What we know:
Oligomer: single chain
Number of strands: 11
Number of domains: 1
Order of helices and strands: EHEEHEEEHEEHHEHEEH
Strand order of the largest sheet: 4-6-8-9-10-11
Shape: globular
CATH architecture: Alpha-Beta Complex
Largest sheet: 6 strands, mixed
Structural class: alpha+beta
Number of helices: 7
CATH class: Alpha Beta
Amino acid sequence: MVQAVDTGPMSFEAFVQWLPEDSRHYELHSGTVIEMEPTGSHELIGAFLAEELTLKFRQGALPYTIPKSCLIKPQLPDSGYRPDVIVLDKRELANEPLWESASTVQYGRTLPLLIEVVSTNWRDDYGHKLVEYEAMGVAEYWIVDYRALGAVRYIGKPKQPTITICQLVEGEYQLRRLVLGQTLESSIFPDLNLTIDRVFQSAEC
């Protein structure tokens, strides 16, 4: 479930000061505070992907990490996002002016990969978040739509659970839709060898 919080219009700086101690489920969309309440299946998929990616970059001695909580500051004014999985390049954190004070990242080169697990706010994931991550220069963005909530124009017809891989090529995202029976293809983790079936099965208890 996603709902607006009645705080009135808020700047990004005010939002950072306002955030409660357990701030994982709040985002700022053009001045409006949004409370995110993900389902259990949503959380299981995000955790599974984070675990698989962590194993991969530890095995390959890659300079990446996945933070417990981190805020993404896009170019869109008065906005701050919290993707479900954030892969950070630790070598770039020294160049992030808001990292030490607010655990905030604003440069795409620090973000090799972002993942959003789709819920009822699917328009955000397929719409302005895709545009903003592209504008930031985030190399790869995955939209994990395990409940097939997105519009037909995004996931095709008949609608079915889909993972959309957005890869930055010459400053623009090239999109590929993947469904059951196919394998994830990532330019960031080319030897990931992870099937779509395994990702969606991770939502099962």
